Amino acid sequence: MDVPATKAEDAAGHRARLRDRLFAAGGEALPDYELLEYLLALAIPRRDTKPLAKALLREFGGLSGVMTANAEELARVKGMGTTSVAAIKAAHGVALRLLKVESSVGPVLANWQALLDYLRADMAHSPVERVRVLHLDSRNRLIRDEVTGEGTIDEAPVYAREVIRRAIQLGSAAVILVHNHPSGDASPSRADIEVTRTIANGLKPLNIALHDHIIIARGGHTSLRAQGLI
Fold this sequence. Notes:
The chain is built from nine helices and five strands, in the order αααααααββαβαββ. By secondary structure, it is an alpha+beta fold. Mean pLDDT is 87; it is low at 1-5.
């Protein structure tokens, strides 16, 4: 007579099937909730993590939102403990590291899409505005990637003198400004345009180029250079 499988055995079999599909065809073989489910199962091996994975995706609007949420936000979701929060933040950190390496190999302008992928992964879902400056050498290779300011949901300080001073200090041949709009709308504000032009005008006599100012948002990105605003 067949003996019914226990819940633990069912869960183990399900995870084994997920693992087999992951090995056979890579992450593309699994939908977002299953990828997240399997990641959480590594941190919480004795629980059915599918409901938690789906709850996280609902709460944060998708996988990108889950991975970029901060630890405090993740911990507020019922069922999330320290180990599971750490697992998600570690996975996000690895992904960012890989994207950053890819975007910084060779001239930045020749790896523009890789740079945008890295910036979106790091900044698009941030709940507050952050400003960063990418400093480049004469061959457009990355010297330094610095977050220079963090503000509120709709404002972050950008100090033109500080950007210029730092470019001189690092011997930058060019810079790229980047900031995010937590609202989800990547359209530049009047203040964005004005500070961009102030920095460009301050760098020009020093023979330092302002290649672009990129605004990152959940809904996409805007290049002020492409918009003819620099």
